[in-house]
Amino acid sequence: MPCCGASDPEEGARVPSQVQRHGSHGRKPWRYVRVVVLLLHVFFTGSILLLDPTLRSQIRQGNWHMMLYGVMVLLTLLQYLYTAKSSPGYVVDMLRAGSGMHATFINTETLSKKDRPVPKDGSLNSAMSRSKIEEQNQQSATPSLLLQMMDLYPPGSNSRDLTCSSCHLIQPPRTKHCHDCDKCVLKFDHHCTWLATCIGKRNHCRFWWYLFEETTLIAWTVALYIQFLHLDMKESWLKGLTGLILLVLLILILVILLILLMLHTYLALTNQTTYEIARRRRITYLREVPSKVYPFSNGICRNLYDLCLSREKGYILEAVPPLEELEARARPYTCRDVICCRCC
Protein backbone atom coordinates (compact mmCIF):
# COMPACT_ATOMS: atom_id res chain seq x y z
CA MET A 1 0.00 0.00 0.00
CA PRO A 2 1.44 3.36 -0.92
CA CYS A 3 2.44 5.63 1.91
CA CYS A 4 2.34 9.40 2.05
CA GLY A 5 5.72 10.72 1.05
CA ALA A 6 7.15 7.28 0.29
CA SER A 7 8.55 6.72 -3.19
CA ASP A 8 10.64 3.68 -2.28
CA PRO A 9 8.62 0.45 -2.79
CA GLU A 10 10.29 -1.16 0.22
CA GLU A 11 9.47 1.91 2.29
CA GLY A 12 5.83 1.70 1.29
CA ALA A 13 5.78 -2.02 1.98
CA ARG A 14 6.52 -1.36 5.63
CA VAL A 15 3.25 0.49 6.12
CA PRO A 16 0.89 -2.55 6.26
CA SER A 17 3.13 -4.18 8.86
CA GLN A 18 2.69 -1.09 11.04
CA VAL A 19 -1.07 -1.39 10.65
CA GLN A 20 -0.96 -5.04 11.65
CA ARG A 21 1.31 -4.33 14.57
CA HIS A 22 -1.01 -1.63 15.85
CA GLY A 23 -4.05 -3.81 15.30
CA SER A 24 -2.45 -6.58 17.35
CA HIS A 25 -2.76 -4.44 20.47
CA GLY A 26 -6.33 -5.65 20.62
CA ARG A 27 -9.16 -4.31 22.61
CA LYS A 28 -9.26 -3.85 26.33
CA PRO A 29 -12.70 -5.28 27.01
CA TRP A 30 -14.31 -5.80 30.37
CA ARG A 31 -13.80 -9.55 30.10
CA TYR A 32 -16.68 -10.70 32.23
CA VAL A 33 -19.22 -7.99 31.46
CA ARG A 34 -20.92 -10.10 28.79
CA VAL A 35 -21.25 -13.00 31.19
CA VAL A 36 -22.77 -10.63 33.76
CA VAL A 37 -25.31 -9.34 31.22
CA LEU A 38 -26.32 -12.88 30.28
CA LEU A 39 -26.67 -13.83 33.95
CA LEU A 40 -28.85 -10.78 34.59
CA HIS A 41 -31.22 -11.93 31.85
CA VAL A 42 -31.39 -15.39 33.40
CA PHE A 43 -31.89 -13.89 36.87
CA PHE A 44 -34.78 -11.55 36.05
CA THR A 45 -36.61 -13.94 33.73
CA GLY A 46 -35.98 -16.94 35.96
CA SER A 47 -37.10 -15.09 39.10
CA ILE A 48 -40.56 -14.33 37.76
CA LEU A 49 -40.99 -17.98 36.80
CA LEU A 50 -39.96 -19.09 40.28
CA LEU A 51 -42.17 -16.54 42.00
CA ASP A 52 -45.30 -17.08 39.92
CA PRO A 53 -46.63 -20.68 39.81
CA THR A 54 -49.28 -19.57 37.31
CA LEU A 55 -46.64 -18.87 34.69
CA ARG A 56 -45.04 -22.27 35.27
CA SER A 57 -48.37 -23.99 34.72
CA GLN A 58 -48.94 -21.97 31.55
CA ILE A 59 -45.56 -23.12 30.22
CA ARG A 60 -46.42 -26.77 30.96
CA GLN A 61 -49.72 -26.30 29.14
CA GLY A 62 -47.93 -24.84 26.12
CA ASN A 63 -49.55 -21.41 26.38
CA TRP A 64 -48.72 -19.55 23.18
CA HIS A 65 -47.88 -16.18 24.71
CA MET A 66 -45.39 -17.78 27.15
CA MET A 67 -43.81 -19.67 24.28
CA LEU A 68 -43.54 -16.36 22.42
CA TYR A 69 -41.97 -14.80 25.51
CA GLY A 70 -39.34 -17.56 25.55
CA VAL A 71 -38.59 -16.94 21.88
CA MET A 72 -38.21 -13.22 22.64
CA VAL A 73 -35.71 -13.96 25.41
CA LEU A 74 -33.69 -16.19 23.08
CA LEU A 75 -33.71 -13.66 20.21
CA THR A 76 -32.62 -10.85 22.53
CA LEU A 77 -29.68 -12.87 23.86
CA LEU A 78 -28.63 -13.85 20.34
CA GLN A 79 -28.87 -10.24 19.17
CA TYR A 80 -26.79 -9.17 22.16
CA LEU A 81 -24.01 -11.65 21.32
CA TYR A 82 -24.26 -10.82 17.61
CA THR A 83 -23.81 -7.11 18.33
CA ALA A 84 -21.11 -7.63 20.97
CA LYS A 85 -19.03 -9.75 18.60
CA SER A 86 -19.42 -7.38 15.64
CA SER A 87 -16.80 -4.96 14.42
CA PRO A 88 -17.71 -1.26 14.45
CA GLY A 89 -15.46 -0.63 11.45
CA TYR A 90 -11.86 0.06 12.36
CA VAL A 91 -9.59 2.13 10.14
CA VAL A 92 -6.91 -0.56 10.33
CA ASP A 93 -9.43 -3.12 9.05
CA MET A 94 -10.25 -0.80 6.16
CA LEU A 95 -6.56 -0.65 5.29
CA ARG A 96 -6.15 -4.42 5.53
CA ALA A 97 -9.18 -4.97 3.32
CA GLY A 98 -7.53 -3.01 0.55
CA SER A 99 -9.98 -0.12 0.82
CA GLY A 100 -7.32 2.19 2.17
CA MET A 101 -7.69 4.80 -0.56
CA HIS A 102 -9.20 7.17 1.98
CA ALA A 103 -6.77 6.71 4.89
CA THR A 104 -3.09 6.05 5.34
CA PHE A 105 -0.37 5.80 7.92
CA ILE A 106 1.94 8.79 8.04
CA ASN A 107 5.42 7.76 6.94
CA THR A 108 7.15 7.25 10.27
CA GLU A 109 10.58 7.88 8.78
CA THR A 110 9.48 11.16 7.22
CA LEU A 111 7.95 12.18 10.51
CA SER A 112 10.66 10.70 12.71
CA LYS A 113 11.74 12.38 15.90
CA LYS A 114 14.89 13.61 14.19
CA ASP A 115 13.01 15.58 11.56
CA ARG A 116 9.75 16.40 13.35
CA PRO A 117 9.82 16.10 17.11
CA VAL A 118 6.64 14.93 18.81
CA PRO A 119 5.37 17.45 21.39
CA LYS A 120 4.55 16.48 24.96
CA ASP A 121 0.83 16.15 24.26
CA GLY A 122 1.59 13.32 21.83
CA SER A 123 0.15 14.98 18.72
CA LEU A 124 2.17 14.84 15.52
CA ASN A 125 3.82 18.08 14.50
CA SER A 126 3.03 17.38 10.86
CA ALA A 127 0.93 20.29 9.70
CA MET A 128 1.11 20.33 5.89
CA SER A 129 -0.99 22.33 3.52
CA ARG A 130 -2.44 20.77 0.40
CA SER A 131 0.04 22.62 -1.82
CA LYS A 132 2.99 21.16 0.11
CA ILE A 133 1.57 17.66 -0.19
CA GLU A 134 1.08 18.14 -3.93
CA GLU A 135 4.69 19.30 -4.27
CA GLN A 136 5.90 16.17 -2.50
CA ASN A 137 3.87 13.94 -4.80
CA GLN A 138 4.47 15.57 -8.21
CA GLN A 139 6.93 12.84 -9.20
CA SER A 140 4.81 10.02 -7.78
CA ALA A 141 3.18 7.62 -10.26
CA THR A 142 0.04 7.32 -8.12
CA PRO A 143 -1.85 10.08 -6.29
CA SER A 144 -1.10 10.38 -2.61
CA LEU A 145 -3.53 8.70 -0.28
CA LEU A 146 -3.20 11.75 1.91
CA LEU A 147 -4.44 13.95 -0.94
CA GLN A 148 -7.47 11.73 -1.43
CA MET A 149 -8.02 11.79 2.30
CA MET A 150 -7.91 15.58 2.51
CA ASP A 151 -10.42 15.85 -0.34
CA LEU A 152 -13.03 14.65 2.15
CA TYR A 153 -12.41 17.69 4.37
CA PRO A 154 -13.11 21.40 3.84
CA PRO A 155 -10.42 23.40 1.97
CA GLY A 156 -7.67 24.68 4.21
CA SER A 157 -7.47 21.64 6.47
CA ASN A 158 -4.01 20.44 7.39
CA SER A 159 -2.71 16.98 8.17
CA ARG A 160 -1.97 17.75 11.83
CA ASP A 161 -5.65 18.44 12.56
CA LEU A 162 -6.63 15.18 10.86
CA THR A 163 -4.00 12.92 12.42
CA CYS A 164 -4.68 10.57 15.33
CA SER A 165 -2.00 11.12 17.97
CA SER A 166 -2.28 7.49 19.12
CA CYS A 167 -2.45 5.58 15.82
CA HIS A 168 -0.55 8.16 13.70
CA LEU A 169 -3.33 7.69 11.16
CA ILE A 170 -4.94 10.24 8.91
CA GLN A 171 -8.53 9.83 10.04
CA PRO A 172 -11.51 9.94 7.67
CA PRO A 173 -14.29 12.35 8.65
CA ARG A 174 -16.45 11.16 11.58
CA THR A 175 -13.61 8.97 12.86
CA LYS A 176 -12.38 8.97 16.45
CA HIS A 177 -9.78 7.02 18.38
CA CYS A 178 -11.32 4.80 21.06
CA HIS A 179 -9.01 4.45 24.03
CA ASP A 180 -10.83 1.33 25.25
CA CYS A 181 -10.38 -0.51 21.94
CA ASP A 182 -7.09 1.30 21.21
CA LYS A 183 -8.13 1.77 17.58
CA CYS A 184 -9.63 4.45 15.36
CA VAL A 185 -13.32 3.77 14.71
CA LEU A 186 -15.14 4.84 11.54
CA LYS A 187 -18.28 6.91 12.24
CA PHE A 188 -17.62 6.58 15.97
CA ASP A 189 -20.74 6.76 18.12
CA HIS A 190 -19.61 5.59 21.57
CA HIS A 191 -17.91 2.74 23.39
CA CYS A 192 -20.56 0.54 24.98
CA THR A 193 -19.36 -0.89 28.28
CA TRP A 194 -22.14 -3.48 28.43
CA LEU A 195 -21.30 -4.82 24.99
CA ALA A 196 -17.54 -4.42 25.55
CA THR A 197 -17.17 -3.00 22.04
CA CYS A 198 -17.48 0.24 20.13
CA ILE A 199 -20.55 1.29 18.22
CA GLY A 200 -19.64 2.67 14.82
CA LYS A 201 -20.23 2.52 11.09
CA ARG A 202 -20.50 -1.25 10.79
CA ASN A 203 -22.65 -2.16 13.79
CA HIS A 204 -24.85 0.85 14.58
CA CYS A 205 -27.87 -0.80 12.95
CA ARG A 206 -27.30 -4.01 14.95
CA PHE A 207 -27.05 -1.93 18.11
CA TRP A 208 -30.40 -0.25 17.35
CA TRP A 209 -32.09 -3.61 16.87
CA TYR A 210 -30.57 -4.87 20.11
CA LEU A 211 -31.96 -1.82 21.95
CA PHE A 212 -35.38 -2.41 20.39
CA GLU A 213 -35.47 -6.10 21.31
CA GLU A 214 -34.09 -5.48 24.80
CA THR A 215 -36.63 -2.73 25.46
CA THR A 216 -39.48 -4.96 24.26
CA LEU A 217 -38.29 -7.84 26.44
CA ILE A 218 -37.93 -5.68 29.56
CA ALA A 219 -41.37 -4.11 29.03
CA TRP A 220 -42.89 -7.59 28.68
CA THR A 221 -41.09 -8.79 31.83
CA VAL A 222 -42.31 -5.73 33.75
CA ALA A 223 -45.87 -6.61 32.73
CA LEU A 224 -45.39 -10.16 34.05
CA TYR A 225 -44.10 -8.84 37.39
CA ILE A 226 -47.05 -6.45 37.69
CA GLN A 227 -49.44 -9.31 36.93
CA PHE A 228 -47.79 -11.44 39.63
CA LEU A 229 -47.97 -8.68 42.25
CA HIS A 230 -51.59 -7.97 41.42
CA LEU A 231 -52.70 -11.61 41.76
CA ASP A 232 -50.39 -13.28 44.27
CA MET A 233 -48.89 -10.63 46.53
CA LYS A 234 -51.34 -11.32 49.38
CA GLU A 235 -50.45 -15.02 49.54
CA SER A 236 -46.80 -14.51 50.57
CA TRP A 237 -45.39 -11.19 51.73
CA LEU A 238 -41.80 -12.40 51.15
CA LYS A 239 -42.50 -13.29 47.53
CA GLY A 240 -44.37 -10.01 47.11
CA LEU A 241 -41.51 -7.97 48.54
CA THR A 242 -38.97 -9.76 46.36
CA GLY A 243 -41.10 -9.22 43.28
CA LEU A 244 -41.59 -5.54 44.14
CA ILE A 245 -37.84 -4.92 44.49
CA LEU A 246 -37.13 -6.65 41.19
CA LEU A 247 -39.95 -4.70 39.53
CA VAL A 248 -38.48 -1.36 40.65
CA LEU A 249 -35.06 -2.35 39.26
CA LEU A 250 -36.62 -3.42 35.96
CA ILE A 251 -38.56 -0.17 35.63
CA LEU A 252 -35.34 1.83 36.10
CA ILE A 253 -33.65 -0.27 33.42
CA LEU A 254 -36.67 0.16 31.14
CA VAL A 255 -36.59 3.96 31.47
CA ILE A 256 -32.89 4.03 30.54
CA LEU A 257 -33.46 1.73 27.57
CA LEU A 258 -36.39 3.82 26.32
CA ILE A 259 -34.25 6.96 26.44
CA LEU A 260 -31.45 5.20 24.55
CA LEU A 261 -33.85 3.78 21.98
CA MET A 262 -35.39 7.20 21.30
CA LEU A 263 -31.95 8.82 21.10
CA HIS A 264 -30.57 6.30 18.61
CA THR A 265 -33.76 6.41 16.56
CA TYR A 266 -33.27 10.17 16.27
CA LEU A 267 -29.60 9.64 15.36
CA ALA A 268 -30.53 7.11 12.68
CA LEU A 269 -33.13 9.42 11.13
CA THR A 270 -30.71 12.36 10.98
CA ASN A 271 -27.47 10.46 10.26
CA GLN A 272 -25.70 11.70 13.38
CA THR A 273 -23.69 10.06 16.15
CA THR A 274 -23.69 10.48 19.90
CA TYR A 275 -20.11 11.75 19.77
CA GLU A 276 -20.94 14.41 17.18
CA ILE A 277 -23.82 15.75 19.27
CA ALA A 278 -21.85 15.77 22.51
CA ARG A 279 -18.62 17.22 21.04
CA ARG A 280 -19.89 19.26 18.11
CA ARG A 281 -17.98 22.42 19.10
CA ARG A 282 -14.76 20.48 19.62
CA ILE A 283 -14.80 18.81 16.19
CA THR A 284 -12.92 21.15 13.88
CA TYR A 285 -14.94 20.62 10.70
CA LEU A 286 -18.29 20.94 12.53
CA ARG A 287 -17.65 24.21 14.35
CA GLU A 288 -18.96 26.42 11.54
CA VAL A 289 -21.97 24.25 10.73
CA PRO A 290 -25.19 26.20 11.40
CA SER A 291 -27.22 25.04 14.37
CA LYS A 292 -30.12 22.67 13.69
CA VAL A 293 -28.42 21.53 10.48
CA TYR A 294 -27.51 17.86 10.10
CA PRO A 295 -24.38 18.03 7.93
CA PHE A 296 -24.28 14.37 6.86
CA SER A 297 -28.02 13.82 6.46
CA ASN A 298 -29.28 12.70 3.05
CA GLY A 299 -32.95 12.69 4.05
CA ILE A 300 -34.76 10.30 6.38
CA CYS A 301 -35.33 7.55 3.82
CA ARG A 302 -31.78 7.57 2.49
CA ASN A 303 -30.32 7.71 6.01
CA LEU A 304 -32.24 4.61 7.04
CA TYR A 305 -31.34 2.82 3.83
CA ASP A 306 -27.63 3.57 4.21
CA LEU A 307 -27.71 2.49 7.86
CA CYS A 308 -29.49 -0.83 7.56
CA LEU A 309 -30.18 -1.83 3.95
CA SER A 310 -27.18 -0.78 1.90
CA ARG A 311 -25.31 -3.75 0.43
CA GLU A 312 -22.41 -1.83 -1.08
CA LYS A 313 -19.12 -3.59 -0.52
CA GLY A 314 -16.10 -1.92 1.00
CA TYR A 315 -15.98 1.11 3.25
CA ILE A 316 -18.02 4.06 2.01
CA LEU A 317 -16.73 7.27 3.58
CA GLU A 318 -18.60 10.56 3.75
CA ALA A 319 -17.09 13.89 2.78
CA VAL A 320 -17.80 17.00 4.81
CA PRO A 321 -20.33 19.07 2.80
CA PRO A 322 -19.28 22.59 1.70
CA LEU A 323 -20.28 25.41 4.03
CA GLU A 324 -22.43 26.98 1.29
CA GLU A 325 -24.51 23.81 1.05
CA LEU A 326 -24.93 23.65 4.82
CA GLU A 327 -26.03 27.28 4.97
CA ALA A 328 -28.60 26.56 2.25
CA ARG A 329 -30.00 23.73 4.37
CA ALA A 330 -30.44 26.15 7.27
CA ARG A 331 -33.11 28.15 5.46
CA PRO A 332 -36.65 27.77 6.86
CA TYR A 333 -39.01 25.23 5.34
CA THR A 334 -41.57 26.47 2.84
CA CYS A 335 -44.82 24.90 1.64
CA ARG A 336 -42.98 23.73 -1.46
CA ASP A 337 -40.34 22.00 0.67
CA VAL A 338 -43.07 20.16 2.59
CA ILE A 339 -44.82 19.08 -0.62
CA CYS A 340 -41.52 17.93 -2.14
CA CYS A 341 -40.63 16.06 1.07
CA ARG A 342 -37.39 17.99 1.54
CA CYS A 343 -36.75 16.23 4.86
CA CYS A 344 -37.01 12.81 3.23
- Read across the widest sheet, the strand sequence of neighbours is 1-2
Tally of contiguous helical segments: 14
Order of helices and strands: HHHHHHHHEEEEHHHHHH
Number of domains: 2
| Low-pLDDT ranges | 1-29, 99-127, 138-143
Strand content: under 5%
- Which structural category do the helix and sheet elements fall into? mainly alpha
Enzyme class: transferase
GO molecular function: protein-cysteine S-palmitoyltransferase activity
Pfam families: DHHC (PF01529)
Family: Belongs to the DHHC palmitoyltransferase family.
Task: Tell me what you see in this structure.
This protein is mainly alpha-helical. The protein has 2 domains: 9-270, no CATH class; 284-339, no CATH class. The chain has helices at residues 9-23, 33-51, 53-60, 64-84, 91-96, 130-136, 145-150, 159-162, 204-232, 237-270, 274-278, 300-309, 323-329, 335-339; strands spanning 176-178, 183-185, 190-192, 197-199. Strand 3 (190-192) and strand 4 form a beta hairpin. It starts with 8 loop residues before the first helix and ends in a 5-residue tail after the last helix.
Task: Give the structure's gist in a few sentences.
With 344 residues, the protein is mainly α. The protein has 14 helices and four strands.
